[in-house]
Automatic annotation (TrEMBL), chain A:
This is Pescadillo homolog. The gene is NOP7. Transmembrane segments: none annotated. PANTHER family: PESCADILLO - RELATED, PESCADILLO HOMOLOG. Residues 600-612 have a biased composition (Basic and acidic residues). GO terms for molecular function: ribonucleoprotein complex binding; RNA binding. Belongs to the pescadillo family. It is found in: Nucleus, Nucleolus; Nucleus, Nucleoplasm. CDD domains: BRCT_pescadillo_like.
TrEMBL record, chain B:
Residues 20-29 have a biased composition (Basic residues). GO terms for biological process: ribosomal large subunit assembly; rRNA processing. The lineage of its organism: Eukaryota, Fungi, Dikarya, Ascomycota, Pezizomycotina. Pfam families: Nop53 (PF07767). Belongs to the NOP53 family. This is Ribosome biogenesis protein NOP53. One of its GO terms (cellular component) is nucleolus.
């Protein structure tokens, strides 16, 4: 007989510790233990059998690996926690004696490391341990940035001290400055929760969420002590990440911070970036450069050139004023269809590799109802140098004067006042009068709604501003983070790209049919009138009236059948054969192609059926079920595509 | 001067020396051991011979003397100090010509010199706010003790901090640093139903756009709508069940009460024989006719009936069994279908998304508390605006972040306890025996 083992001596009982056991082992208080676990990255675990682990009568709920806790015993922070505990005991004893001055003296001297010789601790070594390489740190930056941006936007309370908020804000702004200089921002998305940003830093995609301003409610079921612990850790992390990022592009860290400007709400403008060697504000150095930052003569020459260019720029601007009709920008020409609803022309894409050039050379003015912080950040990150805004939006703008002639684009988000609509056209008169009319437009300036900026950024090209004009119904704002699966309908792509072969052929044939139908209709007046009116009605349909369109769709499908019957009737009356319609070569080829395709699909289906026969019953059923769901999905996509095709056709017809 | 006496007698209690028993020869007087006493008497004799008396009876003065002269060898050894005296004595002996200031408190002067005396500052005063803070600190709720210092070096560029090997101490053995166990690098336990790790910031869907595509938005709206309707239905069902339960309980209670009342009634108010009522039960039973003997015909009939009954029963059982056999197939089919559905789900989960989602969570969670519910992240159709200015942000980011931490298994769910559990106090009136007044 094997040796009988005692319970709780080996296996799970030894591998796991309950939380109480861990706390006792480390001689810490529970909050301190929690803090340490968060900083060191020790997570609760789940044993396979809880009863085998805990010996107590009451059900324990949280378990940790024994080895983790054992390792925590070596943590230098543990000593600090214990010291803090000792201090707390001393203070509480002094208070208990009624010796308040003594208590405060103890507390004060503990807070001054120069008096006690015991330094306050930092989390540097913990960060080094948890993120052995910089890439590791970058990978965990999503959480860090979301948290810090959130705390930077919180109102200060007793739970969230103002100092912490200010610190978060500063770190976040420093990070934004890095993205501006390095042009690392890639995408941004306006969601109902907040604004998502995606940046690419050294090949790593980083996604974070920034709340809208002044919208944070503090709810009860959030533990601020725990959140504060995370924030402390992440603040240290982002500090070091910022240092590394700044030095990698040859900038000095921390950048110069102007408290006065910050108090006046300058935000990004409160920082002045300095090069490591020369004060080159915003000079772009090699991104991701090596550790060598000596005065490189080539770099110096480039910087000098850039500075000269910057100095010359006012001259360029004056030119802009002269012919304000054309916006001189680095934007490439756009190939626009001559008539609306024409073919979607492939646009010359802005070299997608260089987002630094998207808004370069433009001067923006933000009206006071627009969100300044995100707009400023995005515009700067995509190459815009001069952004002005209304003075109510804070300090640091390029100009607060709305009538500044240098402005090329103005971002407006207010409704068009109906009464003043008529005066919109004659901008010449309005320019002479000083008073700014609510609907006043400065000529030569592009007025757009804020979404334009986001859509431009996400599509890597300047969208046509007409679609985003003030008061115009905006096109939907799509999420740039949604991956479309194979064969799924994607509203951003042109129809030709995503259609299946069968669909294209069907559509072409339907067109031909329709053309023939028209011919037939010309013979029969009654029918044609009816058809026309139907088409007109269809043309008037807007996007929102989806249900009606569905019905329309069905009617459309029925149409060829009715036509066919009519043709047969006609033939009967005339006493001729049915196949009287002349088919030109093109149509014939298409018909043949369609037949071939049908045959091919049929063959494929047969093959599949045969292959299915080989499967076991269980697997076959599984396969069928999956096929069913896939078909359902693709049918939906097909429906969406056909809807779009129809709309495009209607638009073309209308033109 | 106190008389010093040597410690006399045995500190132990009186006992009979080596005479544990008084029985036998050992108890005889001649056999008693008196060697101790003899030894003592010898000592006394010796003292008398040597010193002329018993030492214990002598006066202290006869035995000791006070040395008031001092060591005669000292002046020879320290001639300087003895002749001049100690410097300390000299300093102490110094006296000021000015009389000492009296320490007695005196009343303040009644007249003034016109200068208002500066108010004495209590520099070591601790105000109430500070006191409150101190109390908090003593309670363990101190502010951050982490020093937040601007980063001033590249953490990832410097080599890992090894204890600097000094050549001088090369003979010392190297201190082995504790190695992190493998378990430290394990991913935290995610709470997603499919057990996959979740991203810190999930990629937003198109439906969450402030100006969404209609189809996406409709899908989300329908989904959330059905969810809300289901939840409401469940809530109503729970309320109904609760109500039914209460009603049943009330009914049964009422019945029990009624029964009790009846029982009481019968006990007290039943018509008794005393009142002249009689129950006829017993009489009837005694009058019952006894059964006649069964005839053979009757027996046969009964036998036949029983046979028939058995047959019918058997048939019914057989039928039931057959039905069950048929049902087995059906059940197996059902089970197979269920399995299949599960497998399909598994496959869909496995290939659909590489990440877990934070909507479908596993049943077992970490910690005692349930996860906070996710806020509804949906703008209702009547609030849907296509202008950024008019957007009403939905959801709570703070809660969202907190929940994300929990769902990713970084920590267990916790709720802030605003009030500590207090010790129960029982209030009683103070009394002593004196408070009682008799009569």
């Amino acid at each position: 007989m094997a040796k009988i083992k005692r319970r709780g001596q080996a296996g799970q009982a030894k591998n796991y510790l309950t939380r109480t056991q861990a706390v006792k082992k480390l001689q810490l208080s529970l909050p301190d233990f929690r803090k340490l676990c968060i900083w060191k990255g020790i997570y609760p675990r789940e044993p396979r059998n809880k009863k085998k682990v805990s010996k107590s009568a009451t059900a324990s709920t949280t378990f940790y690996y024994t080895k983790d806790v054992q390792y925590l015993l070596h943590e230098p922070l543990l000593q600090k926690f214990r010291e803090q505990k000792v201090l707390e005991k001393k203070i509480s004893r002094a208070l208990g004696r009624g010796d308040v001055t003594d208590a405060s003296r103890l507390e004060r001297s503990a807070a001054r490391p120069d008096k006690t010789g015991k330094p306050r601790y930092t989390l540097h070594h913990v960060i080094r341990e948890r993120y052995p390489t910089f890439a590791d740190a970058l990978r965990d930056l999503d959480d860090c940035l979301s948290m810090l941006f959130l705390f930077a936007n919180l109102p200060s309370t007793s739970a969230v001290p103002a100092k912490m908020i200010a610190r978060c804000e500063r770190l976040c702004l420093e990070f934004e400055h890095y993205l501006i200089v390095s042009h690392g921002l890639r995408k941004s998305f306006l969601s109902i929760k907040g604004i998502y940003y995606q940046a690419n830093i050294q090949g790593e995609d980083i996604l974070w969420l920034v709340p809208y301003k002044f919208n944070q409610r503090i709810v009860g079921d959030v533990d601020f002590r725990i959140m504060g612990t995370f924030v402390e850790f992440y603040m240290t992390l982002l500090g070091f990440v910022n240092y590394r990022l700044y030095t990698s592009i040859g900038l000095k860290y921390p950048p110069k911070f102007d408290q006065l400007k910050d108090d006046q709400g300058a935000e990004l403008g409160a920082f002045a970036l300095e090069g490591v060697n020369i004060a080159t504000n915003g000079a772009k150095a090699a991104v991701g450069g090596d550790a060598e930052y000596g005065p490189d003569p080539m770099l110096q020459a480039a910087v000098d050139k850039l500075v000269r260019q910057l100095k010359e720029e006012p001259g360029v601007e004056s030119e802009v004023i002269v012919d304000a009709e054309e916006v001189p920008s680095d934007a490439l020409d756009k190939f626009e269809p001559v008539a609306p609803g024409g073919d979607v022309l492939p646009q010359p894409s802005h070299s997608s590799s260089d987002p630094a050039e998207l808004f370069a050379g433009m001067t923006f003015f933000l009206s006071r109802e627009t969100p300044r912080q995100p707009l400023e950040f995005i515009l700067r990150a995509f190459g815009c140098k001069r952004i002005g805004w209304d003075s109510v939006l804070g300090e640091g703008s390029f100009t607060t004067d709305e009538s500044d002639p240098a402005i090329t684009h103005q971002i407006v988000d207010r409704p068009v006042v109906q009464a003043a609509m008529s005066s919109e056209g004659d901008g010449e008169d309005n320019q002479t009068s000083q008073k700014v009319d609510p609907n006043q437009r400065y000529p030569g300036r592009v007025y757009v709604q804020p979404q334009w900026v986001w859509d431009c950024v996400n599509n890597d090209e300047l969208k046509s501003p007409e679609l985003y004009a003030p008061g115009a119904p905006l096109p939907p704002h799509l999420s740039p983070f949604v991956k479309t699966a194979q064969g799924q309908y994607d509203p951003t792509l042109p129809l030709e790209v995503q259609e299946t072969e069968a669909e294209t052929l069907d559509a072409d044939l339907a067109e031909v049919d329709e053309a023939e139908g028209d011919e037939v209709d010309n013979d029969m007046d009654v029918e044609s009138g009816n058809d026309d009116s139907e088409e007109e009605a269809a043309a008037e349909l807007s996007e929102e009236e989806e249900d009606e369109e569905d019905e329309e769709d069905e009617e459309d499908e029925e149409e060829p059948a009715t036509l066919q019957r009519q043709r047969e009737l006609e033939a009967e009356i005339a006493g001729k054969a049915v196949a009287s319609k002349t088919v030109d070569a093109k149509t014939k080829a298409k018909l043949e192609a369609r037949k071939a395709l049908e045959k091919k699909t049929r063959e494929e289906a047969e093959d599949l059926e045969r292959a299915k026969g080989m499967l076991s019953k269980k697997k076959r059923k599984l396969f069928e079920q999956m096929q069913y769901t896939n078909n359902k999905k693709s049918a939906e996509d097909m429906k969406l595509r056909s809807k779009r095709r129809k709309m495009e056709k209607e638009l073309a017809k209308k033109a | 001067m106190p008389i010093l006496k040597p410690l006399a007698g045995n500190p132990n209690g009186p006992q009979q020396y080596k005479q544990p028993s008084r029985k036998g020869k050992k108890a005889w007087r001649k056999n008693v051991d008196v060697s101790d006493i003899e030894k003592g008497l010898d000592q006394v004799n010796e003292q008398i011979i040597v010193t002329g008396g018993v030492i214990a009876e002598k006066e202290s003065e006869d035995l000791f003397m006070l040395d008031v002269v001092g060591d005669s060898a000292l002046p020879k050894r320290f001639p300087k100090i003895v002749s001049k005296g100690l410097r300390a004595d000299e300093i102490i002996a110094q006296r000021s010509a000015v009389p000492a200031v009296s320490m007695r408190k005196r009343p303040e002067n009644k007249t003034t010199d016109g200068i208002i005396a500066a108010k004495r500052q209590r520099t070591n005063y601790v105000d109430q706010k500070e006191l409150r803070r101190l109390k908090k600190v003593a309670d363990g709720q101190h502010e951050s003790t982490v020093a937040i210092i601007d980063a001033d070096y590249d953490m990832w560029d410097t080599p890992a901090d090894d204890p600097v090997a000094v050549e001088k101490f090369s003979f010392l053995s190297k201190v082995e640093k504790a190695k992190a166990p493998k378990t430290m690098h394990e991913q935290p336990l995610t709470l997603a139903a499919n057990g996959k790790s979740m991203p810190a910031v999930p990629k937003p869907k198109g439906a969450h756009s402030y100006n969404p595509v209609f189809a996406d938005y409709q899908d989300l709206l329908l989904e959330e709508g059905t969810k809300a309707v289901d939840a409401e239905r469940k809530r109503l069902a729970a309320i109904d069940a609760e109500q039914a339960k209460m009603e049943a309980a009330a009914r049964s209670a009422a019945e029990a009460e009624a029964a009790e009342a009846r029982a009481n009634l019968s006990e007290w108010e039943e018509d008794s024989e005393w009142d002249g009522f009689e129950s006829g039960g017993e009489e009837l039973s005694s009058k019952a006719k006894r059964p006649q003997r069964k005839t053979q015909v009757q027996r046969n009939k009964i036998k036949r009936r029983k046979e028939e009954e058995r047959r019918v029963k058997l048939e019914a059982a057989l039928k039931k069994k057959n039905a069950q056999v048929e049902r087995i197939k059906q059940l197996a089919e059902e089970v197979a279908l269920e399995h299949q559905a599960m497998e399909v789900e598994k496959i869909e989960m496995s290939d659909d998304s590489e990440d877990g989602n934070d909507v479908e969570l596993r049943h077992r969670q970490l910690g005692k508390l349930r996860l906070p519910e996710k806020d509804l992240e949906l703008v209702l159709p009547d609030e849907l605006q296509d202008s950024l200015r008019l957007l009403k942000p939905e959801g709570n980011l703070l809660k969202d972040r907190y929940r994300s931490m929990l769902v990713r298994g970084k920590m267990e769910a916790r709720r802030h306890n605003p009030f500590k559990k207090q010790a129960k106090t029982k209030i009683t009136e103070k009394w002593t025996y004196k408070d009682f007044v008799l009569g």
